[in-house]
Amino acid sequence: MLTNYLKENTADFHNEIESKLESKKLFEGTFSDENYYKMLRVNHLFLKEYEDKIKKLLTVKDFGILHQTNFDKCRLIEKDLSELNLTELEPQNASELEDRAEAFGALYVIEGSMLGGNVIAKTLKKYPSLKDKSFNYFGHYGEKLGQSWKTFLRYINEEFTTEKEQSQVIAGAKKAYEDLIRFA
Ligand code: HEM
């Protein structure tokens, strides 16, 4: 199944981004406000480079089935950045996405990151310096997160069934992760 291959083929990238963003500190209680700011700024640059490219390759059917998915999360991070008076990172070159299958691979990285985001938001809300902040981005899906992630996984498993299509989805996910890791 595509989603199993995706998880297996990107596990090392996940470890690498977690390590670059120092997320282990979250659970050790040593994660700082600066660590959170870096996460926001890196994700912002990543979404700014990727969201429009992805949307251009998706179909009306994709948007219909994935109606729970927010394809404009860049705006959510911008609200967080402005609330915290943070500047954006300098724009950087990012890979091009070749087709709809690659776009879905990149979207897998974006939507999957919301699973970690949920943990991050819940943990950081307990930090005295951040407890009044909005977490527009990391907290976005709230209770709907599990449902929207399941719908996404089911849909890509149905849509990309041949070996060729599946390797294109994986190629898109790798491009996205490589850029994200480079930005961090
Ligand atoms: C921007 C950086 C990140 C990206 C792009 C990312 C991406 C992903 C992806 C694609 C998945 C789905 C894996 C799958 O089941 O196929 C995932 C799952 C997950 N990530 Fe991350 N992640 C990021 C940061 C983090 C951080 C910092 C944490 C730790 C707080 C984290 C914790 C998790 C957890 C707990 C899951 C769920 C695992 C499961 O239920 O199977 N992630 N992430």
Automatic annotation (TrEMBL):
GO terms for biological process: heme oxidation. It comes from the Bacteria. GO terms for molecular function: heme oxygenase (decyclizing) activity. It holds the Pfam family Heme_oxygenase. Coiled coil: none annotated. Gene3D superfamilies: Heme oxygenase-like. SUPFAM superfamilies: Heme oxygenase-like. This is Heme oxygenase. It comes from Chishuiella changwenlii.
